[in-house]
Amino acid sequence: MALFNKKSNEKNLQIKIPEHLGIIMDGNGRWAQKRMLPRSAGHKAGAQTFRKITRYCSNIGVKYLTVYAFSTENWKRPGDEVSALMNLFKSYLEEALADFKDDSIVVRFIGDKSQFSKDLQKLMIENEESSKDRDGMVLNIAMNYGSRDEIVRAVKNISSNVKSGELNIDDITEETISSYLYTSGQPDPDLIIRPSGEYRISNFLLWQCAYSEFVIMNKLWPDFTTDDLDEALEIFSKRNRRFGGV
Questions:
Q1: SS3 of residue 239 by DSSP
Q2: Alpha carbons 243 and 246: distance in angstroms, whole number
Q3: Is 182 helix (H, G, I), strand (E, B) or coil?
Q4: CA angle 193, 197, 200 (to 5 degrees)
């Protein structure tokens, strides 16, 4: 695990950089409501924070960053909010093709893409294709993602392969299941940060977060800064990760 060369607020504390960082980008709607703005304004502000934090994570040495952008449950929100989000995603993905072209960031989308419009699906594929040969941080953007849905999908695919004879049921291990998830081939997240002060996982990386450290921060996502991320990394660096041992 890499060490951060930026000075900590505490003497002799070495800042550890998680190899895989997860962020639940929460609080856009409440940020807008506090300012008597439409919720869509909060999502737009949150998108700007996302760009800033993504580049910062890449610069300090995070190898994998997974951000929770749109869950399988978010379709239940008011129609006008969902519509505004889809328009924002479209604008962002169009901009990202140019915005990240000079970065080394590899862009991946995890979740069920089939529920999005053809235009959005096309833009996702274009972003993935244009970045696949880069050698920097892997950015997983979770869209129409739900961890229970991910696990059900994995179980179905494993069952299908057992039925066809491609997989022996006695050979199924934890590693086998991990290899059928969207994050196949990636390490599990070391740290998951949730801004907004909410104390729940919200169906995010349930299998993968078995031994993740969690940091809850009382800051709405649009207000989240690189200093807040540094603070979360300081908290993480003080943790003693025993993974069930002594």
A1: coil
A2: 8
A3: coil
A4: 70
Whether the per-residue pLDDT at 8 is higher than 70: the answer is no
Look at the block and give the residue holding tokens 């994570």: 57
CB under 8 Å to 81, separation ≥6 — which residues?
Answer: 29, 39, 40
Q: 43 is written with which tokens?
A: 């999502």
Q: What is the mean pLDDT of residues 215-220?
A: 96
Q: Is 185 exposed, middle or buried (0-12, 13-18, 19+ CB in 10 A)?
A: exposed
Task: Please list, in sequence order, all residues whose beta carbon lies within 8 angstroms of the beta carbon of residue 96, skipping any fewer than 6 positions away.
Answer: 107, 127
DSSP single-letter state for residue 133: T
Distance from C-alpha of 200 to C-alpha of 133, rounded to nearest angstrom: 35
Residue 124 has pLDDT above 60, yes or no: yes
Q: What is the pLDDT of residue 12?
A: 66
DSSP alpha helix (H) spans, 100-190 = 118-131, 147-163, 174-179
Q: Which residues are catalytic?
A: 26, 74
Determine contact, residues 213/239, Cβ cutoff 8 Å.
Answer: yes
Range with lowest mean pLDDT among 36-40, 94-98, 117-121, 163-167: 94-98
CA atoms within 13 A of residue 77's CA, in its CB half-sphere: 16
116's CB contacts (< 8 A; 6+ apart) are: 86, 89, 124, 143, 144
Q: Reduced to 3 states, what is the DSSP secondary structure of residue 17?
A: strand
Beta bridge pairs of residue 22: 66, 192
Rg of the chain taking only CA atoms, in angstroms: 19
